[in-house]
Write a structure and sequence with these properties.
- The protein is α+β, with helices and mostly antiparallel strands.
- It has 25 helices and 27 strands.
- Strand 13 (372-377) and strand 14 (383-390) form a beta hairpin.
Length: 773
């Protein structure tokens, strides 16, 4: 029993101990739970969102703090209590909240709604959701948050967003409307946006397509590629500017590229077409180079100083004129140093106060009036004209012109004028110079004395018609005075030289002329030709007498030639009878004598025929006009002379081209002319020589050439070959005159042709006859 009782007591003690331990543990847990509940309650009391427990029957458990947020005097117990006469929500907002809660009960979908208590400036945000403490129950929690400050911030941000959006839209519109290509690259430097000008520049369809394909405005890659500037701008954080070529609209254009880094790591860019500017700069450079090249070719020295008064350019004449070395000028010396250098080279005028003189020239940089011009007389007798022109950029342009030669020429001109005046007044001719308007400008004493004009009249520079009126009474025929007016006007207006002769009333004769002068004036000259006129008349009378005597001589020679033919015929006949043996047989020596007589008779007969032909005047023996076959005529003439050529062992060659054809003329005269030419060539050729008769032609002319390889003629003989009088006088050493060439010339020219002779000693002769068709 005791043991049992002890065991029971032990069990009871153990159970009490276990119960005490469990109770203490539960008491500790309860204490911790209470502490956590108090902490959560305190945290909830100060949380920015306060809960309203909404029962399934839509009754409310509202904390006092939430009632204060709604502007209620005491917490509401139902939804209708959210709206009261003294505050709360608008009934319309209450209805909307009720609809949201009913929807939450049915679907479990949370909701958010903002409300504004009546009479309050605060904004409340309501978050509705199912209660997490009731499992599957229909209780709900309506979290209330005072969003007044957040709403103000939201409204401020919304306003800022609207402003930013407007600014962005305006900027976007500006970029789109910009005439220059513009683009934006993202942090990866790939194209993210381009404007319309960019799309047109790369000939794309749309901005999105260009961005998607990454079409770059600038071709190439590497350091000169389109990304080089963007990379440099992003790395340095400063805008990069480059000039690169691009193909815009099918043409190469120079583009000024700007790459601007942005804070977000992207890079914005735009391109300005500076092709026209580059071309203008190139034209300006070319113009400057051409201007400097032109200035180097000028005879005047040119020096240009900049705004800082340093020498920026000088041409070669300036360097030579003032003995300036190129290496010294390369340092761009200042104006004062240049002046001093001129003085050292003795290229400045000698002045007493050189510093003051130099200071006056330094004022050229500040003058506002027109260009300054002055003349420097250098010690060595050189005259320099100096022109100082202020430039628009504040610089100064100096021009140095060497006038020494001009001054010398002016002095020489004055001397020449004095010499001309003295010469003018002492000339034998009467001279007058008329201006382009017809007024008498200059005259000499001979002019005034010839026409007996008053000095007062001449000093008034009268017109030419007034002068003509004054001189008319002095002429044998007064109407001839009008010719002076016509001649002066022809020389001044038409620039033609004309002249004539006039007889004075006193019997003197003058030759006059009006000559146009280079300055537009006219020189009227009159020369006394009274004596020469008398001599001319005497010569004219003598020429007439000589012409009559020549006709008498010609007639006499012709008559004598006819008279000579009668005894010559008798001599020829008796000599032929003796040679034929009619008077008996002759001895061998007698036969030789008779042969010599016959040969002399033949030669004398030919000579008489030639003399008769020469003495015939043109027109006395008219030519026969008919078609002449030149090849047959020339071949006949050659055959007629072939026996003579064979007898003298001379080769006679003919080369007659079919193109020689026919001409219209006198066959007898042409045959006689060819016979004379062949006979002349045979006579000029020694034994074993060669004579060539060649003929050819074209549609307008027939050409006949007779050449030989004889001794030839010198220049004097060639000049007299066709002169019949020179041939008649050529009887030296007992030679018979050769009248063949003069006769041939006479016959050829009668047909309208020409004949020429070319010959040199030892080279033979060549005669060319040209006959028109």
């Amino acid at each position: 029993m005791l043991i049992v009782a002890g065991l029971i007591l032990l069990l009871l003690v153990a159970g009490a101990s276990a119960a005490l331990y469990h109770g203490l543990r539960l008491s500790g847990a309860a204490s911790r739970e209470r502490e956590q509940w108090l902490a959560a309650r305190a945290l909830l009391a100060h949380a920015p969102m306060q809960p309203i427990l909404v029962r399934s029957d839509l009754r409310l458990d509202m904390p006092p703090r939430v009632a204060d947020l709604f502007g209620l005097v005491q917490p509401a117990t139902d939804l209708d209590g959210l709206s009261s006469a003294g505050g709360g929500l608008d009934p319309l907002d209450v209805e909307r909240i009720m609809a949201d809660l009913l929807a939450l009960q049915r679907s479990g979908r949370p909701f958010v709604r903002q409300v504004r208590p009546r009479g309050a400036a605060r904004t409340l945000t309501l978050h509705g959701e199912r209660s997490p403490t009731h499992g599957q129950g229909t209780d709900m929690v309506l979290w209330v948050h005072d969003a007044s400050e957040a709403q103000a911030e939201v409204e401020r941000l919304a306003n800022e967003q609207a402003q930013v959006r407007e600014a962005f839209e305006a900027l976007t519109g500006l970029i789109e409307a910009a005439p220059m290509p513009m683009w934006y690259r993202g942090p990866d430097l790939r194209l993210a946006m381009v404007n319309t000008a960019y799309v047109q520049g790369v000939e794309g369809n749309a901005a999105a397509d260009v961005v998607a394909r990454g079409v770059e405005l600038i071709e190439g890659s590497g350091h000169g590629g389109p990304l080089a500037g963007a990379i440099a701008a992003r790395e340095t954080g400063r805008p990069e500017v480059r000039v690169l070529p691009a193909t815009i609209g099918g043409a190469r254009r120079s583009m000024l590229l700007h790459d601007v880094p942005l804070p977000n790591g992207g890079v914005a860019g735009f391109a300005i077409d500076i092709e026209d500017l580059e071309q203008a700069r190139a034209r300006e450079r070319r113009f400057a180079d051409a201007q400097r090249a032109m200035l180097d070719r000028l005879s005047a020295g040119v020096a240009q100083f900049g705004r800082d008064r340093s020498l920026v350019f000088c041409n070669q004449p300036f360097r030579r004129m003032f003995a300036m070395r190129s290496e010294w000028l390369s340092d761009r010396p200042e104006f004062d140093r240049v002046i001093e250098r001129m003085r050292e080279a003795n290229r400045l005028p000698e002045v007493r106060d050189f510093p003051g003189w130099k200071a006056e020239r330094r004022e050229w940089f500040t003058r506002t009036d027109a260009a300054v011009e002055e003349t420097w007389h250098l010690p060595n007798g050189v005259y320099i004209r100096v022109v100082a022109q202020l430039l628009p950029d504040g610089g100064l342009l100096l021009i140095f012109e060497d006038r020494t030669e001009e001054v010398q020429l002016a002095s020489a001109r004055d001397t020449l004028l004095r010499v001309r005046t003295a010469t003018f007044d002492n000339l034998f001719e009467a001279l007058g110079v008329f201006a382009a308007d017809g007024r008498l400008q200059l005259w000499n004493n001979r002019f005034r004395a010839l026409w007996e004009l008053e000095e007062e009249f001449l000093n008034g520079h009268p017109r030419v018609d007034a002068v003509a009126e004054k001189i008319a009474p002095k002429l044998r025929t007064p109407n001839r005075a009008k010719l002076v007016t016509d001649l002066v006007r022809s020389a001044t207006t038409d620039r033609q030289q004309r002249g004539g002769r006039v007889a004075l009333a006193d019997g003197r004769h003058y030759e006059f002329a009006a000559v146009p002068l280079p300055d537009g004036n006219a020189l009227f000259t009159m020369l006394d030709i009274t004596d020469s006129r008398r001599a001319e008349q005497a010569l004219r009378d003598r020429a007439a007498a000589l012409e009559a005597a020549d006709k008498v001589k010609t007639a006499f020679v012709a008559n004598m030639s006819y008279e000579l033919r009668t005894p010559l015929t008798s001599i020829s006949g008796f000599a032929e009878m003796l040679h034929a043996g009619y008077a008996g047989d002759l001895s061998e020596q007698g036969t030789q004598y008779v042969g010599a007589i016959l040969e002399s008779v033949e030669r004398l007969g030919l000579l008489i025929d030639d003399v008769l032909n020469l003495t015939q005047a043109e027109g006395e023996a008219p030519l026969v006009r008919e078609a002449v076959d030149l090849p047959a005529l020339l071949a006949g003439a050659a055959e007629a002379r072939r026996s003579d050529a064979d007898l003298r062992a001379i080769e006679l060659v003919t080369a007659l081209d079919a193109s020689v054809g026919q001409v219209t003329g006198d066959p007898g005269r042409l045959r006689e002319a060819m016979d004379h030419l062949l006979r002349h060539a045979l006579n000029a050729t020694t034994s074993g020589g060669r004579v060539l008769l060649h003929a050819e032609g074209d549609p307008n002319t027939a050409r006949i050439i007779v050449s030989d390889d004889g001794a030839g003629l010198d220049a004097d003989a060639v000049s007299r070959a066709f002169d019949r009088f020179a041939q008649a006088a050529n009887t030296e050493n007992g030679r018979t005159p050769d009248l063949g060439l003069p006769l041939a010339k006479q016959f050829v020219e009668a047909h309208g042709g020409t004949i020429t002779l070319v010959s040199e000693p030892g080279m033979g002769s060549l005669v060319t006859v040209a006959l028109p068709r």
